[in-house]
Design a protein that fits this description.
mainly beta, four-stranded antiparallel sheet, 11 strands, seven-stranded mixed sheet
Length: 128
């Protein structure tokens, strides 16, 4: 089960930290990613974290502003979002998939179709 929290309303330039409680997922075996979807737009992959070393990948649109991390003991993955812009307004989802030959490159590409498990999302609204 994936449960997101931490969304809300923030002014442009502000920060939020999203949390994804990932119960039942072994971080060594599963990649956990963050996606977002704005009204009328396709779901966009933002970042993922995988492997025992917690290797991270970012979409160009958020690299340098967003940071993904995880707390293995708490079974939680975080997305720290800084310098938020109105265009970051969206529903943010965390997703998980087993990392294997059929999913590896999809994970690195942050492709939604590579991920099998999804949370219900949390709304982030950035006001100008």
């Amino acid at each position: 089960q994936l449960v997101e929290s931490g969304g809300g309303l923030v002014q442009a330039g502000g920060s939020l930290r999203l949390s994804c409680a990932a119960s039942g997922f072994t971080f060594d075996d599963f990649a956990i990613a963050w996606f977002r979807q704005a009204p009328g737009k396709e779901r966009e992959g933002l970042s993922c974290i995988l492997g025992s070393r917690g290797t991270t990948y970012y979409a160009a649109s958020v690299k340098g502003r967003f940071t993904i991390s995880r707390d293995n003991a708490k079974g939680t993955v975080y997305l720290q979002m800084n310098s938020l812009k109105p265009e970051d307004t969206a529903v943010y989802y965390c997703a998980a998939t087993v990392v294997g030959p059929s999913t590896y490159y999809g994970v690195l590409d942050l492709a939604a179709e590579a991920f099998d498990y999804w949370g219900r999302g949390t709304q982030v609204t950035v006001s100008s």
